[in-house]
Write a structure and sequence with these properties.
Mean pLDDT of chain B: 96
Helix content of chain C: 25-40%
Shape of chain B: globular
Distance between the termini of chain B: 61 Å
Chains: A alpha+beta (755), B alpha+beta (293), C alpha+beta (160)
Low-confidence stretches of chain B: none
Distance between the termini of chain C: 53 Å
Order of helices and strands of chain C: EEHEEEHHHH
Radius of gyration of chain C: 16 Å
Largest interface: A-C, 59 and 57 residues
Number of helices of chain B: 12
Order of helices and strands of chain B: EHEHEEEHHHHHHEEHEEEEEEEHHH
Shape of chain C: globular
Strand order of the largest sheet of chain B: 4-5-10-6-7
Structural class of chain C: alpha+beta
Number of helices of chain C: 5
Low-confidence stretches of chain C: none
Largest sheet of chain C: 5 strands, mixed
Strand content of chain B: 15-25%
Oligomer: heterotrimer
Strand content of chain C: 15-25%
Structural class of chain B: alpha+beta
Number of strands of chain B: 14
Number of strands of chain C: 5
Largest sheet of chain B: 5 strands, antiparallel
Helix content of chain B: 25-40%
């Protein structure tokens, strides 16, 4: 984008098109669909974290009242190893299939073992209780240190560490190692005036979307399935279900319902293929919904991690070397977010010498799924915490330390490419100027600063635009609207076509009605699908110019499009009235037929997102409780299409990050059973836990997008962890390196420091 | 019995009859007040069928009487009705605080004092407050009514002193003496919506000079049942709640506690914060009773 | 024992249904009466997505038995707007972008109405504590609190 541009539709705070349905209860989410004859599917789940399945006896259950179908792993086809592409998390279809329904082993507490479909949920539950499964218990592997020990129980005997120069001789719980490096890290540390090192741990956490996974599936006699699913990516549900069930992609149609939150957790499949299979066996539509407990135990949380960071710097704050040792729990199957975590960890900083080593580690927990900037919050929590310590040791303001080393346009990112226009410095400078940054602090209060980064994704998107006979506009695209994207699509279409926003409607279409589109994830929708919508609109404009030209009897290239009208180019000697979209649409039959614009693309050039957050907290020294007094989130958002929903992303990400920092964690007992599988004891922030989240949007346009859009959804969760931890350290005087900063942990640290 | 049944008797006699007749037929019954614990248990830990006997229509469980000598709080009254009663708030502010801390606004639309007692969770918020206020449980059976001190009502984790056929009608509180007030504090990791990691209910009586003449200290979530801690009260009586006295009361509470380590806290942490809560609650109660700041 | 016949009123409409004695009001609303605006987020009273009122009192419908509402007046999200005219709370939630995914929104709107009916001028702290039982994972609550404040002001203006 070269020159500053005046916009008409975008940048306004309009009412979202799906809003009325969502405030009146009419919007239909995953569990809200029912067909005539619908029956209910429920899943029997493993009571053990690690065991061999000796036998499954479903005879008694199959004779229970109301039971119409029972399936176990034996009813699913064998699926070969094949990498999953297009989704947000790493993985393999063989593992996906085994995660959907266990075969010979259960690999975590809650792993699906069998499923029943019955005429009521109560009957299905009763039948599950009547299924007899014999297990031979195995020792569970519940953390990184245990999993990586030389004498560790190996979870998968077929798993040999990849990423090493040669194939190892023994299987291991380490699925993958990766290394990123530049320069000479040892020389860099030797050249430093100060070298700091710290080991940081983060617990297993959950995305915590309020709507549990839900779907309704029906399959006809011809073998064609229709699935209504609450998902971030219905095309991924289709491809995943097809692989797991050995079906043709064309035999599965997935209709996305409204989705009650996902944050990455609804980018894969759990109950959907099971529902299809139960429908096939019973001949009835099958509805499956997870309970909240099942969501915690059996969907995909985010990796627990252990990160060791080392930083060398000159006395003036110049970084000379950085190293990171990053281990991420993958859960029961390979494919954690270690790689993006490793790529992000030093991304905001210029450093000539670095070494990053990452490890993807199997444990007997549910297979992790993406969670908002997957991988980045954990590694960057560690790095941003240690930078805070460095600033303290050097006596520098933490923002100044970051300004001293901040990447800017033209710098080569630690993960490879050269940065285009980015707004990290602008965010740091804005933070320094922000009035909240100079609010005086009281006793037991502290302020903490941290930076955040996320690449943002492009990937494949499709869009169609139909110009209706009255000149109104229908946009058809394939990304479930998880936070207002219908509004931004409509605004971009309106902007491009020059029509009022209110004349544009956006339809999120099913897998047979929208062109292939990658998942709603990677902060890609407004960028990539938005670009498809813009291109489809330009397709329409091109056609409209032709239609006007033929109406006027002049050449197509003699027509301009301005303010939603076709006009003759200056100097064209034609005495004609401008033609609006409505004029052209109403006359379409006479000029070549309906106006249909299309675009499909694989978007490149997603602009990376940088943020700077700072938090003020107060500690209760007698209980160890931390209260967040103020929170300020500053982020380069490229161009905010709908500012309110962009602010909402910053605020929501901050709240999730604050929860991660303060209280959220999976609490496991010694048998590998999660003890807090509910919203009572998995403590996500409630309204009274938080202050207002102050936001400041910095707009450094992304040159790869017609309007300068860069993704905004994921970056906001990255910085809060360290911002809160650094504030906690400032308030308490004690550095705690393990999250969460729960009251018992803080009090213990205070007492330890006092003794 | 293979399936659930529901009864909502309109009178106490009818309710007692239902309990008796089902007992004779060996059919399980369970009393329902607000149901905020019971429905969760029915869905998770205790799915066995039973006859649910809803006691919300009885006048005895719905009566609230604050004006007289004693305060009487019907066992089934929802929390919102108690927190909205200005007389009750003035007379037993700590008790109402405890009610107000149970769950969300939604939970307070249903949850009752009687239910909180009968559920007998070690962490039940109102239980230490009821004990600190000298609450007495009024229990009806076919043989008439009996009364038992609140601290004797809960006998173990999830177990109460009700015998088969009995119904907790309400809780009676002696009218607080002059210059008496109470406070309840609990500790939770969030600001709302959690189960107490520890709790403390304290009632303080002062003389005109501001000296403490009587006290009751009860603690929650640090033992299988809420505990009345006479040693903590003793540490306060005769003092002006100076820091040393508060410290001693807190230490006594800590000594009396028998906590466990679970997902909500450790033994050490609970021991440590129960002392803090006793100190803070005693101070608030004394201020309310008229102590000079 | 067989299902129980229950006669009640939902959003001012006389309503009858059959339900199991242990069936929750939430399931009755969603499954028996097809009022799916009331959402299930946890079924344990911890998230507030299933908020409704019974005789004007805010409750979690997952913690009420369907049989208990005989003779009572139940208010759900479907009864907040009057025909196609949105309630000011609904309007302000839209204007302030106080929803992202929207699944907690029905519960929040029902709870907010209950708050403002009893406390027309709540402080920020009162709003946050009253709504603490309504989990929202998308917004960080900021815009929700602002929408409630603005709705309160609008409603006070209408009353005056």
């Amino acid at each position: 984008m070269s020159e500053a541009r005046q916009f008409n539709a975008i940048g306004r705070r309009v009412i979202r098109p799906d809003g009325v349905d969502k405030v009146t209860g009419r919007a239909a989410f995953g569990a809200d669909y029912t067909l005539p004859g619908t029956i209910y599917g429920k899943v029997l789940r493993s009571p053990h974290a690690h065991a061999r399945i000796v036998s499954i006896d479903t005879k008694k259950a199959s004779r229970m009242p109301g039971v119409l179908a029972i399936v176990t792993g034996a009813d699913f086809p064998k699926v070969g190893s094949e990498e999953i592409t297009g989704g947000e998390g790493a993985g393999d279809y063989k593992d996906l299939a085994t995660n959907v329904m266990a075969r010979d082993r259960v690999l975590y507490h809650g792993h699906a073992v069998a499923a029943v479909a019955a005429t009521s949920v109560a009957e299905a539950d009763a039948a599950l209780a009547a299924i007899k499964v014999r297990y031979e218990k195995l020792r569970p592997v519940m953390d990184i240190d245990t999993a990586m020990a030389d004498d560790a129980v190996v979870i998968d005997e077929q798993l040999f560490t990849s990423g090493l120069p040669e194939k190892p001789s023994k299987p291991s719980n380490v699925a993958t190692v990766m290394e990123l490096k530049r320069g000479d890290v040892e020389a860099g540390f030797a050249a430093a005036d100060i070298v700091l090192e710290g080991t940081y741990r983060t617990p297993t956490v959950h995305q915590g979307y309020i709507e549990p996974h839900a779907c309704l599936a029906t399959i006809n006699q011809g073998g064609q399935a229709t699935v209504w699913a609450s998902t971030q990516g219905h095309f991924d549900v289709r491809s995943g279900a097809a692989k797991v069930l050995g079906m043709k992609v064309s035999d599965i149609k997935v209709i996305p319902t409204e989705i009650g939150g996902g944050f990455g957790g609804k980018t894969t499949i759990y109950v959907e293929p099971v529902a299809i299979l139960l429908s096939r066996r019973s001949g009835r539509p099958v509805k499956m919904t997870m309970t909240r407990e099942e969501v915690f135990r059996a969907s995909g949380p985010a990796s627990a991690t252990k990160c060791v960071i080392k930083i060398g710097a000159k006395n003036d704050g110049t970084l000379t070397a950085m190293s990171a040792w990053l281990a991420y729990e993958a859960g029961a199957f390979k494919g954690s977010s270690m790689a993006p975590g490793a790529m992000c960890v030093f991304a905001p900083y210029k450093v000539d010498n670095f070494l990053i080593r990452g490890f993807d580690v199997l444990v007997n927990k549910p297979k992790v799924a993406a969670y908002r900037a997957p991988g980045a919050p954990q590694s960057m929590y560690a790095c941003e915490s240690l930078l805070d310590e460095l600033a303290g040791k050097l006596g520098m303001d933490p923002i100044d330390l970051r300004l001293k080393n901040a990447v800017e346009e033209g710098c080569q990112a630690a993960y490879g490419p050269k940065f285009n226009a980015i707004g990290f410095r602008e965010c740091l400078e804005a933070a320094k100027r922000h009035p909240n940054y100079s609010v005086p602090l009281g006793p037991d209060e502290g302020r903490g600063v941290a930076a955040g980064f996320w690449f943002n994704a492009g990937m494949q998107s499709s869009a169609e635009i139909h110009i209706n006979e009255d000149g109104t506009v229908t946009v058809i695209e394939g990304n479930p609207d998880i936070g207002g994207s219908r509004a931004s699509m409509a605004m971009m279409a309106a902007e491009e076509l020059g029509v009022p926003y209110e004349r544009v409607r956006v339809q999120i279409a099913d897998t047979e009605s929208a062109g292939y589109t990658n998942t709603t994830g990677g902060s890609r929708v407004t960028f990539a699908t938005g670009m498809a919508v813009i291109q489809a609109a330009r397709d329409i404009i091109g056609q409209c110019k032709q239609r006007a030209a033929s109406t006027w009897g002049i050449d197509g290239d003699m027509v301009d499009w301005a303010d939603g009208k076709a006009i003759p180019k200056p100097g064209v000697n034609a005495d004609v009235k401008p033609l609006t979209l409505a004029n052209i649409a109403s006359n379409a039959a006479r000029t070549g037929g309906p106006l249909l614009g299309r675009a499909s693309l694989n978007a490149r050039g997603a602009g990376p997102g940088f943020s700077v957050n700072f938090a003020d907290v107060r500690v209760d020294r007698e209980t160890g409780k931390l209260d967040v007094l103020r929170f300020t989130a500053i982020q380069d958002v490229g161009k905010a299409i709908h500012p309110s929903y962009v602010e909402g992303q910053l605020q929501g990400g901050a709240a999730q990050g604050i929860g991660w920092a303060l209280n959220e964690e999976y609490v496991y007992n010694k048998d590998g059973v999660m003890e807090n599988a509910g919203f009572l004891d998995y403590r996500i922030p409630v309204a009274s836990d938080l202050p207002m989240i102050d936001t400041q949007m910095i707009e450094v346009p992304n040159p790869s997008h017609p309007y300068g859009v860069r993704g905004v959804g994921e970056t906001p969760i990255v910085a809060p962890l360290a911002a809160i931890a650094n504030a906690s350290c400032a308030a308490t005087g004690v550095r705690i390196r393990d999250l969460p900063l729960s009251p018992p942990r803080v009090l213990a640290a205070l007492e330890h420091a006092a003794s | 019995m293979e399936s659930f049944a529901y009864a909502a008797p309109a009178t106490l006699d009818e309710a007692l009859d239902i309990l008796k007749s089902h007992r004779r037929r060996k059919v399980r019954t369970q009393l329902l007040a607000g149901g905020t614990d019971m429905l969760v248990q029915m869905r998770t830990s205790d799915r066995e069928p039973r006859v649910i006997v809803d006691i919300k229509k009885l006048k005895e469980t719905n009566r609230l009487n604050v004006g007289g000598k004693d305060t009487y709080v019907g066992a089934a009254l929802a929390g919102v009705l108690l927190t909205a009663d200005k007389q009750l708030v003035a007379r037993h502010p700590g008790l109402v605080e405890a009610v107000d801390l149970i769950g969300s606004s939604q939970i307070q639309g249903r949850a009752s004092l009687g239910g909180n007692l009968c559920n007998a969770s070690p962490a039940g918020d109102t239980i230490p407050a009821i004990i600190a206020n000298g609450g007495v449980c009024v229990i009806a059976s076919a043989n008439g009514t009996r009364e038992i001190a609140a601290e004797k009502f809960v006998v173990g984790v999830g177990r109460n002193a009700l015998k088969p056929g009995e119904i907790l009608l309400g809780i009676r509180f002696p009218k607080p003496a002059k210059r008496t007030s109470d406070a309840y504090l609990r500790f939770i990791p969030r600001s709302e919506m959690d189960i107490a990691v520890a709790g403390a209910g304290v009632s303080i009586t002062l003389d005109k000079s501001g000296k403490c003449t009587a006290a009751r200290v009860a603690i929650g979530a640090v033992a299988p049942t809420a505990l009345l801690v006479p040693a903590a009260a003793k540490a306060l009586v005769g003092t002006r709640l100076e820091p040393a006295a508060l410290q001693a009361a807190g230490a006594a509470a800590s000594d009396a506690s028998k906590p466990i380590t679970d997902k909500r806290g450790t033994v050490e942490y609970r021991r440590s914060i129960v002392a803090v809560l006793v100190r803070r609650a005693a101070k608030i109660a004394a201020e309310r009773a008229g102590a000079l700041k | 024992m067989a299902k129980v016949h229950v006669s009640t009123s939902v959003n001012g409409q006389h309503t009858e249904f059959l339900c199991e004695p242990n069936e929750s009001l939430l399931d009755v609303l969603r499954e028996n009466l097809q009022l799916t605006g009331t959402k299930e987020g946890c079924a344990t009273g911890d998230c507030g997505a299933c908020s409704v009122t019974i005789d004007g009192t805010l409750v979690c419908s997952c913690l009420v038995l369907g049989v208990e509402i005989a003779g009572k007046e139940v208010g759900t999200i479907e009864g907040i707007a009057k025909g196609d005219v949105l309630h000011p709370i609904q309007q302000k939630f839209l204007e302030h972008a106080a929803l992202q995914c929207g699944v907690c929104t029905p519960g929040l709107i029902v709870a907010t109405k209950s708050l403002l009916d009893s406390n027309p001028k709540p402080t920020e702290e009162e709003i946050r504590y009253y709504l603490a039982g309504n989990l929202c994972r998308c917004t960080g609550y900021d815009k929700i609190v602002r929408a409630v404040q603005d709705a309160a002001q609008t409603m006070r203006g209408k009353r005056a």
